[in-house]
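quick one, 183 residues, struct below
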Amino acid sequence: MPARCWMAPEIRLRTGMVGDWLLELLDSGAVSGEDPDACTTTLAAGSARLYAACAGAGVRFVTSGELTEPTAMAACSPFVAVNSALEVDLRGQVNAERGARSRIVARIESGTVTSPQSDVDIVVTEHGTADIRATSLATREKLLIALADERHRPALADRALAARPPAGRTPAGRTTDLAGAPS
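---
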């Protein structure tokens, strides 16, 4: 994840695996190489430069049990979880289990939703960042379409519009009374 996505300086990481993305965080100063607890991990996979950085100060290797030990996790304040995704649909649901590439899609077609829309706060792609917390479905759609590759945006907008129920109808197809309550 690019360092520009982090708002707080000198963050600390607890992650199952580090990759070359850690180098940008170290180079930018977002993660301090001077802090012995700046990065706690179980595995490193990447370039020779990454391995050299991991051998220096600031990166500590532990077992997966130590990494996820409840009191260690509770000591992380503030605690922010960052997860990767293969697909994010226009509702903000995430599929991190199946798929060939990272992408914004109209609907997760595989049926595998690993993070429901209520658990997703911020989505980051190579095209930007969207804070989808406490937003309406229409606002989520707009924000997430803006994160898709520009070649796919018109089709996503069409699919989002087609998925909306007609005026006066609920998603379940029931009519609404004058006050807007399902009847």
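Residues 10 and 30 are 5 Å apart (CA to CA).
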